[in-house]
Write a structure and sequence with these properties.
Order of helices and strands: HHHHHHHHHH
Radius of gyration: 22 Å
Number of strands: 0
Number of domains: 2
Largest sheet: none
Helix content: 55-70%
Strand content: under 5%
Length: 179
């Protein structure tokens, strides 16, 4: 989006975010008095997106906390989403990958994503994509080892693990390996 590259939008970095304006004068839907506020909100959003992957709800919270107008925030988030600089599905997958090293159940992971403002369907999709069979089996083994004190027998174990969001395939695989 600079003078040298007219092929299309690229992911912004911190240095270019201060010189880039995502606003298109032909499609400007903001009143004239909000133009300056929009540009400030846009620059702040680009700096945050350049620093780390963001979700739309989290970015909106951060911009609101910095005192930006709600209309400007909504416009900026819409524009960043259209340019694929902001993608809740991508954020959810990356967040889940970073959390798999912790011993948490799929239900806890899903709940944490939804608490961050990710829509439930998007969170479920990201969980399915990230938690493949091998990753789920490894997580299940770590989870059982950490939470053994909560479990009181095989029948209870199946129910407990299913309730924590583990698939029956992973549970059966684990129980067959134990026998």
């Amino acid at each position: 989006m600079n003078a040298r590259n007219t092929d299309g939008p690229e992911r912004a970095d911190a240095s270019s975010s201060q010189n880039v304006s995502l606003q298109n004068s032909e499609t400007n839907t903001l009143p004239a008095n909000l133009d300056e506020q929009y540009i400030r909100a846009e620059k702040a959003a680009l700096r945050l997106v350049a620093r780390a992957e963001q979700c739309s709800a989290g970015l909106a919270r951060k911009l609101k906390r910095r005192g930006h107008d709600c209309a400007c925030i909504n416009e900026v988030i819409t524009k960043l989403t259209e340019l694929n600089l902001l993608n809740d599905g991508r954020f959810a997958c990356l967040w889940l990958q970073s959390r798999l090293r912790f011993t948490r159940s799929p239900r806890q992971l899903l709940s944490s994503l939804c608490a961050r403002g990710i829509e439930h369907d998007c969170a479920v999709s990201a969980l399915r994509e990230t938690l493949n069979e091998d990753a789920e089996n490894a997580l299940l083994k770590k989870y059982i080892k950490k939470n053994a004190w909560k479990i009181k027998g095989a029948k209870s174990l199946k129910f407990f693990l299913k309730n924590e969001g583990f698939s029956m395939t992973a549970i059966s695989h684990f129980l067959n390996d134990e026998d």
